[in-house]
Amino acid sequence: MRFKSPLIRGTLVQRYKRFLADIRLADGEVVTAHCTNTGSMMGCKEPGSAVYISRSENLNRKLLYTWELIKADNTWIGINTLHPNKLVPEAVEAGVIEELRGYETIRREVKVSAHTRLDLCLAGSNGNCFVEIKNVTLAVNGTAAFPDAISERGTKHLRELMRLKRQGHRAALVFVIQRGDCDRFRPADEIDKEYGRWLRRAIKAGVEALPYRAKVTAKEIVLTERITIKL
Question: In this structure, how many other beta carbons lie within 10 angstroms of the beta carbon of residue 132?
Fold first, then answer.
């Protein structure tokens, strides 16, 4: 996924009200950018950190800027939670996610129950594979971890994937690690013990957990390789 236009470098002043971030540009001007990440952003919101923002071509937008990247632990991290839903289909079509090769069509935002949608449904001659995508920015001692805040919604998705697996479908969870400094992935039990418990139950029930690391730069973000999962 290449950015449509060159990103703008700045310095984080503060992130507040979850959806807002004040950014100081090189000329000293402070602009307010939209923050798509609703998590705690633990380790990814330190004032004074270098960041990159994008500028929308839609001049009617309330906030013209969107916060895209932050530099933490000497690593560029993608904090825009909208991008993984573009990255995974791209990677599936390019054959990067080896485990999800061989499907003919990809449907997005698929309704699987009265109150739940999952991100993708891959369809082919061997049936359907339902896929939920999660964005990962948190790292603990070099290991990527999810979630960075209690996620009841994430736990609900695990239960839905387990239900679909029982019905005979294939079910998978792709963790998009938007940072290049982690070689392993694990559930963040210290933050959301319930999510960790359900993730282990889901994997035991046959739901596939696929943590993939991304290469993050100011020009593009691409999935590169699967990393080890530690339960």
Answer: 22
* CA-based nearest residue to 37, from 155, 148, 180: 148
**Per-residue pLDDT tens for 104-158?**
999 999 999 888 999 999 999 989 999 999 999 999 999 999 999 999 999 999 9
CA distance 208 to 53: 34
| Residue entry with tokens 């993730």 | 199
Side-chain-side CA neighbours of residue 69 (13 Å): 26
Query: H helices of the chain, where?
Result: 84-94, 152-166, 193-204
Rounded to the nearest 10 degrees, what angle do helices 152-166 and 193-204 cross at?
10
Percent of the chain with pLDDT over 70: 100
Give me Rg for the CA atoms of the chain: 18
What token pair was written down for 135?
């964005």
The C-alpha atoms of residue 55 and residue 190 are separated, in whole angstroms, by: 36
